[in-house]
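Sample A.
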Amino acid sequence: MTTSASDVEQVAAELGQAHPSDILTQALARHSPAITISFSGAEDVVLIDMASRLGEPFRIFTLDTGRLHPETLEFLETVRKHYEIEIEAFFPQPDPVQQLVRERGLFSFYDDGHQECCGMRKVEPLRRALADGVDAYVTGQRKDQSPGTRAEIPVVQLDPGFSVNPERPLVKWNPLANWSSAQVWQYILEQRVPYNPLHDRGFKSIGCAPCTRPTNPGEHERAGRWWWEEATKRECGLHMINLDD
């Protein structure tokens, strides 16, 4: 697949209404084995389940921030064993995290925003995850996850912010962009896909433990993420292209 903006936009238009499995099929056909799936939540394991049925090689990575719920860590291990796959874990660099905690404590983000902490614990590890032999990656983003920041995401796009080679931008696939939460959970239940047990305790969107809470009936799923901040700023930096757009 060429990586000019016009070519990627054409593919996005052609696949805009396709089933996620068909979009994922195209992603693997165009990039395998130099393609990796970002894995953390319910949407991502749906993608792993779909990809495992397609027969093409792919990689999987996860970002262990050091602040994840114990249930999330157990879930990662459950998925690894269930699909008999390798999951590449990337951790934050210790020195900047240690300096931040020493100078401002463990919960400074409640006072001055989450961006600095997320930059150390998520964004920098993501750069390393995407730097080694990766031409494209797959995310579980959906338009209905965050009307303020994700309403316009296409099924495939260029992600120059995380590209190692400016002349060959990284391709970012979002096969579930047009699916609703209900469709994701229908797939999980019908296909008996493993899911994080925190979902059974009211957690709809799950991130780091200090920055995630259960949502109340009727609340949007992202209401449980960084709830002390303004809604349009609730991106950790992994998908900052959404804000740029």
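Sample B.
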Amino acid sequence: MNTETVTRWMHACAASIAEQRDYLTQLDAAIGDADHGTNMNRGFTAVEAKMDGLDGGTPPGRALTQAGSTLVSTVGGASGPLWGSALRRAGKALGDAETFEATQLVDALEAALNGIVELGAAEPGDKTIVDALGPAVAALRAAVEQGRPLPAAMTDARAAAEEGMHATVPMQARKGRASYLGERSVGHQDPGATSTTLIVAALERTVAEES
């Protein structure tokens, strides 16, 4: 994998989030500020433009770092700083190498997860991004360590993210805007976990196409 992998992943994220923008906003209207879809769409549209303008010699880690910085500067609410921090951490984990393998991808995504956990002070069960990304990273690491091909490992990761996303429905939110609703947040799927699942699924598709 290389910078082209990162670029195609970011384009796939942008396309998926644009397609699901209204759904994400609908989810957020129930327990948030009804702006998650709009914010994420604006952010990843800007990331697409940033990726298209990259210098040909930009390593994949630096491309991810620039994608993260773009999200921080263009996305409102909590999702911009959280995913911006995540992609910057992932980029830093990849360093300046021109290519990366499955094990480096796992480490980068784990760094992304740690960035979100540290910035958002969220734990599993808080009804946040972490409830989808945490299981995805764990499933990916387990599959890669078992020697499974990366496309199959990413399918495991996406399935784990989806399961985590659905598991947020009965949870009571303990972080973010939704936490102000208390018990009224129960019964609603978390929009952040939903967009996170779209991002993981976009990576799954990217990896499958490249293989």
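B remarks: The chain is about 70% helix and 0% strand. The mean pLDDT is 91.
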